[in-house]
Every structure is written in C-alpha cells, then in structure tokens.
C-alpha cells in the first residue's frame, strides 16, 4: 500500500488527486475484472459508485477493453443506461513494474444480485418488480440495437445494476461495438473484445465465431440471447453455469414463457426483437408497470385521465411493494406536483406515502415539495394543502412557516370562496404557534378581525374559537386590546346562536387573562344578557360562565379581605374547570362546524360550499393596525337592545374601535335580542290600520271603570292576525255596558242596520246629519273616510279633552 501511495504521488500520470471522490467499501460482486466500490463526492458528500480496473501492463487487453467501456459509457446516454460522472486513469510504480488503474465514477448503484437479496420480495410483488426491471433493460437493449446500431455483447445478471430509486440500468460496455452487418467485405471479428464474454452466455454463432452468420443476422440477435439469459438468472436465482441450463423453464412465468423461448431461438434471424417484447408481452401488463409508466408520461395525459388516476392511487399503492413505492413512486409524484403536471388529488397520495417514512426522511423527501406548493396559484392545490395540514404542519419549522408558508396562506383569508376562507382559518390552529409575534399582531389579527364579521356564520363562529385557542401565543398587550372586544362586542352579539355560544366558551377558556375589574365591568354585564337568550344552549353556557366569573370575583374579594393581595392577584386558570378541556373543545368545535361534509342544510348550520372562482389576494388596506387602535371599556350599564346585525365582510373596523357608538339609544326599552332576528310581518290593510290607530288613542271611561294603562308587549304591534280571546281582552276595557252576549266575537256584517249585539255600537257617535254606513258594513270592507269619521265621532262624544 505504501508503494502504491508513493507511486500515486510521484508517478508521471494523473494520480488520485485528480479523482475528487472518496473511495469506500467494495461490493462482493461486479462484472468481469472490474471492482465495484461505494464512494462519496469531496464537494458535497453525495453518494456515488466507483468502478476500478487494474492491469500490470499498459498494453493489457483488459485495460484496452476497459478504455473502450469508458469511452462508450461516456458517449451513450439513455435513462436505462448507467449515468457516467467522471473517469481517470492512474499509473503507479509497483515493484519493478507499473500498475495502471482505470476509475469510472457513476451515479450510486448496487449490483442487481445484491439488491434482489436485500429486497426479499416474494410472490406477486416479486413478479411485478421483475417485470418492471426487465422492461427497463429491454428498453436499453432496444435503444442500443435499433436506434444506435450497437451490440452490447454480454447482457446478463452481472451487467445490470440498480439505482437508489430501484431502477434497473445496463452497464459493462467493454465489449460494446458497432454492428457492421451492412459491410459485405468485412471478414474479421465484429466484436473486438468478444473473448471477455463467458462461454455460457454466448449464442451458438458467437461461440463458433461465425462472423458471416452474425453479420447476416439482425442487430438484436446476440443481445436478445443475452436478455434470455438474464431472465433465466433472475427467476431461477442462480448464476448461469452452462448453456444447456437455459432449457429448464420451470421457474419462468407462464405469461413470459413464449417470449423467453423466442429470445433463445437457435436461429438468429428468428429471435425476438426486444422492442417487440416490450410492446406485445402480457407479462409487462401489471399494476406496478402501468402505474410507473403513467407517472413517467404524466405531462402527456389530459386532466380527466389524471384525476381518475390520482383518485385511485392512494388505494393502489397499498397493493404495491412498499420499498418501490417509497423509492420510485414517491420521488416521481413529488416531482410531478412540484412542476405542475400532477392534479390536486395527487397530494393525498403523496402524504399517504410520506406517512410511511421516518421523520427525517419525511423532512427530506416530502416537506420541500409541500413548501413549494404553497406558492401555487391552483385553487384546488391550495384547498388540498389546507385540508391535510394536520398531517404535515407539525413537521414545518417556525422559520419556514413564518417566512415561506404563511405569506401564501394569508391570501386565503380574503378569498372569494367561503370554503377556502374557512380552511385558511382552521389551518391557523396548527400554524399560529409557529408564527412570530410581529406576524401575529401585524397581519393575522387583522385578518381574524375581518373574518369575525364574515357573511358566513360558520366562519364567524370558528374565528372566535380560534382566538380562544391562540390567546396563549399573544403577548399581554395584544390580549388586553383584542380578546374582550372580540368576544363580547362581536361574538356575544352575533345573530348566529353557535357564535354566541362560542363567545361565551372563549371567555371562560381565557378567563386567566382578565383582571377582576374587567370581569366585573366588561365581561359579566355582557354575559348576563345571554341568560335570557332564545337559544337554550347559549343560555346554559351563559349561566355556567356567570357562575365561573362570579366565583373568580368572590375568591378575589375573600382574599382581599384577608389581606392576601398577592394571592388575590394570582387567581388564574387553576380555578376554572373549563380550561382543562380547552384544546379538546376547540378541536371538536372546528371539526363539527368547520367541515363542509358535516354541515346540515338547516339555516342555523349555514354550510359553506367549495367555489371554483379564481384566487383573490388580500386587500392592502384591510384593517387599521391594532397597536394604534384605542381601547374603550364597556360600561356596565350598556344597553344591548339596539345592536345591529354583524357588519358586512367589507367592514374594516378593528377590535380597538368596535365599541364606538355602542352607547347610542340608551333609553330603548326593547329586549336585547329584538334586533337579532327581526320579525317580518305583513303590512296591515288600510282599514285595519285605521282601527288599530283608534285603539291606541286615549279614551275617557266612566268613573266606575279604571283608566286603562298603556299596553306593553314584547310582541311586534303590527300584528296581522289577532286571536279571539285577545280581542275580548283588548276591547273589554273600553266597551260600553255589556251586551247581551258578551262572549260573542266581533263578526263582520255584510250589510243591514246596526245590530244590538254589535260591539262597535257602544262607541259609535250620534247619527250624523248625512247618513253614514253602519259599522257592521264598514269593518273590513268599508271605505277609508268612513273609518276616520267613526273614530272622530267616538272621541267627540266621550272625551272631555276634545281630541
């Protein structure tokens, strides 16, 4: 070894210093006289394979053949032929002679015989993998014979190597030579180095050196025979010892047997062309071969074929050899997604394959592709990424999320598709913990402020839920400025009852962030209103919240009275049982209300549908910066009666300003939820409107009867239909002495004189100078002047004020 290194340093040739690779351990087998080593690059440490061939005489025939192999490998390029990277030749003084070593550096490969042992495939999976490998070698041989008019001369198990992606590649080009069958005058050997081929691999004409017959045979005759030898060796798992063993066909698959026999025909002219073998053999029609071939020509397929293929792929990969899926299909699929030739459903298959990888391999092989996909303008790709973010979100680093992922995801907050907006919102549950404070306070909260007044109630609800979950990641100043306004002024006043319930639960879950003053003056007054909410679930949550916050205030008061100021100030989340299940509550709420598949068709559910419009970008002027927004405390006497419906999605108010104007109309006597869902009542007819106007006027009663008070009711006063009992109660207080049948309802008369039982007779005016129609004829069908005249006369007779 010392002499070898001395010769390398002091020799006249180019030494190992010209080989920028490190030579590693050898493989146990290689073709011919070559040795096969593992190696790495000096530049980046990437793996390579290094083949070396040594000779003691520069004129050695093996060295000459090796130089021919180097030249051919460098010039012949094909996907199924070993890729050449570098070569060098070293001369070193060894004893009294000179040792010459040829080095070839190629892509990292492994001898086929060793890889078969390593994989250990059996049954159908083994046959499918062998079919794929033979398909690749047959393409390489066909390329040499039919396209390049070259003869390999020694196709066998030793001349095939396997790449890291489990592709089979052809090498060992030492015997490779041009086919000169068209040269009728040639008489010498066509294959200069045919003596390197072992006798068991030689067809009859080559064993006899019958060059005349060889030149008359087609170019593929010798290599078709070699391909038959390869088929025998891989299926029998034995190295071919002699030519007669090729007759043993017990291990050859039945679907391949006819083609195997034609490849080994004793007549060179009748041997099967390898190109025909690829096209016609049934053996190559299997799931693995078809899947890989489809992936390799994916860019030539139309969208319908792609969608069909990728929807079947997740189930298909379960049936294929796991090693081949991870090492061959996964890189193909990642590349197709990255360069845009794969459809959105392919992401599901990619993540399914990625779930079979270790964490380190997933970060290396899958995450880079996913990060690049976030920059895609394809709406379907963006939807698929957001739907599956829980499968890879934890693997993303904080820097990648903040700098590369979030800027692209944020465009979805202002998208025209409600489905995409909701998916973007839900993705923040996974990504928010990885965002910087600058990003959260500067942009995320602005988007959430806008989503809290979104037109979709499910989005408004989920926004409140999300805020409750990410509150712990906000700094103290931001929490003080945002949470109470977001939960009380907006969520608790939402027209959608689940949104109000979410606001109550969010307040309970974040109660450790509020001091007692805020609880007493801003939170409890807003929650107490909900104890009379029309929705039973909201009422139940409101009562629980009131109890919880009162307990906090009570404990604070007890500790303050005892002089334990520090203990009172430290009242926190430990006293609130609801916080223990915060994460579970938030996840279940997001799942139930967020997934479109779980949305009910009822109006309360308001499901969101997937839109196919183009992606919209976030407006540059969304909301004022929260850091500059003034914060106003909500007065405990604030009336919630006249709060309007949630603002439209175009609203740009921030949580710091949303309390402006909430003190308006303090004197309103309405129920606090009258404005949430206003009743749409039909407009009464003119006649009925006049009667109702008359009912509302003050009427003087006899001394024996008490003066009626103004009727108050929570119901709307413009009612189209009045029940029978209500009529009796309404009019009984202003009626004249009881008629004969006091319980008789007000009936509509179609004509005739005034009846004694007419309830309007008691309040009728004296007969006018000109005859007027009786009340029984007027009610419901009378003219408008008659109704006005009737009311005026009644007032003139009974009222002392002269109304």
UniProtKB/TrEMBL annotation:
Residues 637-775 are annotated as: Disordered. HEAT repeats lie at residues 366-404. Residues 702-716 have a biased composition (Polar residues). Residues 660-673 have a biased composition (Basic and acidic residues). GO terms for molecular function: ATP binding; protein kinase activity. It comes from the Eukaryota. InterPro entries: ARM-like, ARM-type_fold, CIK-Related_Protein, HEAT_type_2, Kinase-like_dom_sf, Prot_kinase_dom. Residues 2-357 form the Protein kinase domain. This is N-terminal kinase-like protein isoform X1. It comes from Durio zibethinus (Durian).
